[in-house]
Amino acid sequence: MRDSSAAASMLAIEIAGRRWRVAARGHDISIPLHFNEAQPTFFGAPAASAEAITAGSFVGDVRHGGSCNCSVHTLTPHCNGTHTECAGHITRERLSVRDLAIRHFSAALLISITPEPASDLPGDRIISLAALQAALGGAALSDYPALVVRTLPNDSSKLTRNYDAEGDKGALPPYFSLDAMRHIVEQGVDTLVVDLPSIDRAQDGGKLAAHRIFWGMPAGSTAAETVTRRHATITEMAFIDSDVANGAYLLNLQVAPFMIDAAPSRPILLPLSPA
User: Fold this and answer.
1) What is the Cα–Cα distance from 209 to 66, expressed in whole angstroms?
2) Pair 106, 165: CB distance under 8 Å
3) Which terminus of the chain has fewer CB atoms gathered within 10 Å of its CB, N or C?
4) pLDDT at res. 7
5) Confidence of residue 9 (pLDDT cuts 50, 70, 90)
6) Could you tell me if 20 and 274 are in contact, meaning their C-beta atoms sit under 8 angstroms apart?
7) Got the DSSP string for 87-147?
8) Which residues contact 234 (CB under 8 A, 6 or more apart)?
9) At residue 211, what are phi and psi to the nearest 5 degrees?
């Protein structure tokens, strides 16, 4: 409901029995995708590109004499920038993120985590359960259906990072331990936003174990009927500027209406303050 106080027009909401005011302006934590320019790259996908359409004498580029701009854009949502994916990412059946990403607004907790060296894979860095719990501090994750994770160190290189090139040098991106992912699920989080290209190890032999845990699927299953958390979504390759403080937000998750398993998205964090 709309707040009736003398303060500037703001939305008032209640989260876990506590009343908050929602700021009208938020923080866009998506990565702007610049076609044919510097952009994030992952898993061997070609860069997102754009080419003016041509039809007879028509060219869809005003700079080249066209009456208007009209281009064909080519991208791989999973690998070319901020995207939201559903369980259809790993099912035989074609489940659509447009149909399953139904939480447009969620109470969200933003935390910052420093990944730790993996004990079993030299050179790997993981978000362990211990690191997750330390980042939560005294916050009750069960109060927030959405979790936003910023990994440290954090800088603007994430906007154009070539994860493949870094992997060739032995520096795979961090990923979640299975214990950490189980804890996230046990606390009721069904909207996860991360600044990583994947919540799983980039080269895990196709297991995608953390994805399956998050969507409530048995190991190795590809059947949609085994998905027990059908409306849970994962948003990857976000970028949370260091100026955005950790804490409580209202997450507005905007997803392109593509009838595919993953689509470009624009998560926005709206600051909360006690009412």
Assistant:
1) 50
2) no
3) N
4) 47
5) low
6) yes
7) GGGG-SS---HHHH---SEEEEEEEEE--EE-SSSTT-EEE-HHHHHHHHTT--GGG-SEE
8) 84, 85, 192, 194, 199, 211, 214
9) -60, -45
Question: Which residue's structure tokens are 């004499």?
Answer: 65
Return the closest-CA partner of residue 214 out of 194, 238, 186. Answer: 186
Q: Is residue 229 part of a domain?
A: yes
What whole-number distance in Å separates Cα of residue 239 and Cα of residue 35?
A: 18
- The C-alpha atoms of residue 96 and residue 84 are separated, in whole angstroms, by 11
| Residue-level pLDDT at 13 | 86
User: What is the token pair recorded at 43?
Assistant: 């898993």
The whole-model pTM stands at 0.94
The percent of residues in the chain predicted with pLDDT above 90, rounded, is 85
CATH number at residue 103: 3.50.30.50
The answer to whether residue 42 sits within a structural domain is: no
Residue 223 lies inside a defined structural domain of this protein: yes
Decide which of 60 and 20 is more confident. Answer: 60
Query: What is the residue range of 252's domain?
Result: 11-32+82-274
Question: What is the domain count for the chain?
Answer: 1
Q: Is residue 69 part of a domain?
A: no
**Is residue 84 predicted with pLDDT exceeding 90?**
yes
Pairwise CA distance, residues 118 & 124, whole Å:
5
**Quick one: which H or E segment has residue 263?**
strand 262-274
